[in-house]
Amino acid sequence: MFTLPLTNPVLVFALSMTLFLISPMLMRLLRIPGIIGPIIAGVIIGPNGLGILARDQTIELLGTVGLLFIIFIAGLEMDIDGFKKYRNRSIIFGLLSFSIPLALGTGIGLILDYSLAASILLGSILGSHTLLGYPIASRLGISKNKAVTTAVGGTLLTDTLALLVLAIITGAATGELSISFFITLSISLMIFTVANLVGIPFISKFIFRNIGNEGDKVFTYVIVVLFISAFLAIVAGVEPIIGAFLCGLSLNRLVFDQGPLMNRIRFTANALFIPFFLLSVGMLMDLSVLFSDPRAWILIGCILVGVIGGKYLAAWLISFIYKAKSEERNIIFGLTIPQAAATLAATLVGFDVGLLDQSTVNGVIIMILVTCIIGPYLVEKYGRKISLMEEQEPYVRSDAPDRIMIPMANPETMESLLELGFVLKKNTTKDQPLYPLTVVKKDVRSAEGDIASAEKMLGHTVMYASGADVPVKLVTRVDHNIANGITRAIVEERATIVILGWEGKRSTRQRIFGNVLDQLVEQTSQSILIAKLGHPLNTTKRIITLLPKGIDHATGFKEALMRIKLMTNDLGAQLICIVVDDEAAKYEQYLKEIKSNPPTTVKEVAGWEELYLEPSKQKNDDLIILLSARQGTVAWHPELEVIPGKLASMNHETFIIYYPQEEKEIDVRGTTGTELPKEMLFKNDFY
Length: 687
Fold this sequence. Notes:
Blueprint: H1 9-29, H2 36-45, H3 57-76, H4 80-85, H5 87-111, H6 116-127, H7 134-139, H8 146-173, H9 179-211, H10 215-236, H11 240-250, H12 260-282, H13 287-292, H14 295-321, H15 326-336, H16 341-352, H17 358-389, E1 404-407, H18 414-426, E2 434-440, H19 448-467, E3 475-478, H20 482-493, E4 497-501, H21 515-523, E5 527-533, E6 542-547, H22 557-571, E7 574-580, H23 584-592, E8 600-605, H24 608-613, E9 622-627, H25 643-649, E10 654-659
Parallel strand pairs: 1-2, 1-4, 2-3, 4-5, 6-7, 6-9, 7-8, 9-10
Antiparallel strand pairs: 5-10
Helix pairs in contact: 1-2, 2-12, 3-11, 3-12, 5-6, 5-8, 5-14, 6-8, 6-16, 8-15, 8-16, 9-10, 9-11, 10-11, 12-19, 14-15, 14-17, 15-17, 16-17, 20-21
């Protein structure tokens, strides 16, 4: 059992998982990115180290899965809208960032007597990069900065070019390079790309619509699509990582960043498969070569000079062309210097087909170690400077934390309302939980059984929210009047945003939504979102926002507009704002003041009748948001009480009626017998 290398599967797995736990911790103590830990562990315990583990079929299998996950997640996280906005700049930078290191790496290979194919492959390895420092930029709040967006957009081009060069070079290495090879490769790649970018979204929308509430099945579907796409890439004549990357791009707009599905994908990849890939890469390194072959040190020095010099020169040139600041130049350099995912992939493939020797593998791994330390350090240092230099928002948000409360009444709409809460929470106070609420309509003395049933339903929200790694605080209230119970909970928990579900039916002609929702809108001044969600949010292509005249005078208008823009950006959708009987230019200026910049169109309609023609053009994947107003405010119009019913009767399956926050004095005499702060008082006496 303990004969080296270890072969007992239980022991091998236990040792591997122990290394995945301990090695990143040790790296962090040394202020080195944790990704380096499993690589160094592989060097030490691998066949060229202590020989504790062999790089057998099991390690290779799990490592291959980890590699595909790395590339797949890179495609999922690609900022496609940012790439479109700075398309020209990103393309120029991507070409510079790939071609300069490619030329330097090819020259280094030829000088060191590599074959032409191996030299070009070495150059393409230096040309790619991994956005290891992007989470740092996101944490510092500069993810939408033009320098960051340029670097991210350039990554799409550099990694794609690197993978295409890899496909051509491996074809040459196996003796398949000919005119027919290029023709076959071009046709197969074209068919394969169209099948991915068109077929996967089409099928996925159908799947998400029909099994969207069954998280395990949706996750299994995504994994099936990932590996089928990777296999079809092999059939098309390219590496499976190209299939994984295209699959990620195809699902980019359907798997949004803060949802349970993305959390499951990241968790599975980061906790299990990616560490096995890093471990398998470390096992390739042979330290003895460094001491037995002096040429290895020359190669390592040349590789480091090539990648650092090439990436810095590309960052300097793009900064010079577009007159960027030195801090922006350094942030571009810091984001594009780290080598990991595509670099490791190309190196591994090149080694397997015999183009790269052990010395090159060692040099590439040491390059990865060095660049993965330099990159995050530069992003942290200059990202803070850029964050401090950026202009602040022109409007001031409240110092009070945003708290999202979601009253629950129907188990069937629970998950869709929570999904909306996840999207909104991403851009509110991060350390605040969601507040799922149930109100039991009964006398306090006889409500024990109903409270237990309500808490059972709330228990399902905990399970669902835990899948998205979102904390929740369960709230239960007992009251003869449901609206009063919700209102009391809002005050007691200091909620600032309330999300409610609506079936699209009215109880009486005099009410907009029904007694409970209407009373709640009248009694509160917080932001209220009344949602009818007929399709999963991640399938949304367009968000159509209706802006009635005078809505910009609402206290929470800019806050609401900010949330809508951020939601649009997070869902990867297009924002269409329709201004009713007001100047579109005024609202265009409001939109420009908000940093998030999804594709946005502002249209102006003369009146309400013309407005109804616009939503009638809605597609199945559209989300309509009406910025409404409470009665008695400047923006209120009698038509606002009719629109929700008209939207429902026109079979619009997904829309939100959004009441922005208002500043009101609300009378609560007779509710609790105690005084409440003036800003938390209710408008009318409903008790």
